[in-house]
Amino acid sequence: MDNDPNSEPTLFSAVMTPHRSLGRNGFVIVMLMVASVSFVSGLVFLLAGAWPITGMFGLDVALIYWAFRANYRAARAHEQIVVTPTELMFRQVSAKGVVTEWRCNPLWVRLDRTVDEDFGVQKLHLVSRGEWVPIGGFLGPDEKESFGNALQAAIAAAKRGPDRTVLA
Question: CATH assignment of 12-18+77-160?
């Protein structure tokens, strides 16, 4: 949070983003390979007299490029959650930058899990006063379980209150 000595300690803080296995360099390499194969194939068809096919190879490259760009734009979405002793804040940012924020007292929150016997944790929801907020949609089942355990521990710590350790 900030450096204010009166501010509350952060019990838990996480930012979740969609996983993308192909970085910028990988994208450039894949596009160069696709363009090279399409160019050579298009050249073969052009020399054989089937010139309209060459344009189709160019269209394929353009469509693959567009699909990758759309995928990277979608990766701008993220979720942030912060738990302090008196507040749980969940912020969801869409790929278009639309921000949705949900705040509540951690004393009134519970974490609900939908678990499948074969596949593990499928859904996580924050529940408070009848309101259900889905969280962790970017995460896989194992990640949801680990994240859920850490978040549950932070909520439990907030409900316990501050440590009353006496220093000698």
Answer: 2.30.29
What would the mean pLDDT of 112-122 be, rounded to a whole number?
Answer: 88
Would you put residue 39 in left (φ > 0), alpha (ψ -120 to 50) or beta?
alpha
Angstrom distance (rounded) from CA 131 to CA 48: 65
Question: Would you list the domain boundaries of the chain?
Answer: 12-18+77-160, 24-74
pLDDT the model gives residue 4: 56
| Mean pLDDT value of segment 116-133 | 90
